[in-house]
Amino acid sequence: MRIFSFLCLLLFSLGVTSRYHSRSQEKKKVKGSSVSARVTPRSKDFAFSLYRALASEAPNQNVFFSPMSVSMSLAMLSMGTGSHSKTQIMEGLGLSLQQGQEAELHKGFQHLLQRFSQLSDGLQLSLGSALFTDPAIHIRDNFLSAMKTLYMADTFSTNFGNPEMAKKQINDYVDKQTKGKIVDLIEELHSTHVMVLINYIFFKAKWETAFSDKNTHKEEFHVTPKQTIQVLMMNREDEYHYLVDQGISCTVVMLPYQGNATALFVLPKEGKMQQVENGLNEGALKNWLKTATKRRLGLYLPKFSIEGTYHLEKILPKMGIKDVFTSHADLSGITNHANVNLSEMMHKSLVEVDESGTVAAAATGEVFMFRSARPRTLQMKFNRPFLFAIVENMDLLFLGKVVRP
């Protein structure tokens, strides 16, 4: 029998949006917190803490990731952890084991999965998971049952003794679920890998009102006060939900998608990017969504395409989630092999924005191993670094910063 030295857990997410038929923007006003927002009241600040950690690792660089994917990945991981490993994950997500919030966390994601599966009205939003396991290693029945019942995970028997075949099986699944947007998620497998867990989110909608490509022209984008590049700048004059947040020195413009999804574009005042980043939290997001009012704007927005690849095993320990990456890991809820720890957690992401809408994709991978009022039109130009988010009914799907379109 071959000796296993790795347990590999990979998770990913994808979102896509594009133009759709015109509807009343009033339907886009947020009706209230979603199910997941009610049952995990503090967990969403994790998204902004993670954003700050990623941004600090790559100063003056593009940032883009899916908080939904990473949060759900950690939630699934927590079901297989014990002792301090579980506590660190829950506290990292802003929750407490003492308050019985673990069950509520899983129930919240279960409700989210169910709600996403029932969405219509032209909005495509799917969320799911898949578990690939080697039949030569025993995965605990309780973990498998929870993955299926709470996270509706697909399960596959995979021969990791043939790494190339296993890699193809998993990458083909990812490719299919993300409509070809995430390819070759897994770059390398070894015969010592025994499990891969995939989590994905796919979001596709259309702008409520498209930009005309006839109004797209080359303009300067100020990457820094001293460096400019030429970008294709879209332009459309219309009424948008808009606000100025004096507290953290930024302007927010919202563009609605079909269904209850919205894109937020956040432009810091000159020299105030760090102040805005430091002020990001769930309260600020809720305030923006609830208090923005319509104003006629001449909106200038660059077409952009950015990607991100992040080794979260280097980031999460700085946020308190560290035991699972060390010899202190307790993953006894996944397998009866005592010497298992999480050695790698990868997140890959991509977003494209053009006249018709947005295409966004992200992937997270975790690798375990055995130890061995109507004023005149205001001109609003996003011609310097800005923040970008996609939300659906108060659920934050994607978050990023565009420094170089």
TrEMBL record:
Residues 48-405 form the Serpin domain. SMART domains: SERPIN. Gene3D superfamilies: Alpha-1-antitrypsin, domain 1, Antithrombin, subunit I, domain 2. It comes from Microtus ochrogaster (Prairie vole). This is Plasma serine protease inhibitor. Belongs to the serpin family. The keyword GTP-binding does not apply. Residues 1-18 form the signal peptide. Keywords: Protease inhibitor, Serine protease inhibitor, Signal. It comes from the Eukaryota. SUPFAM superfamilies: Serpins. One of its GO terms (molecular function) is serine-type endopeptidase inhibitor activity.
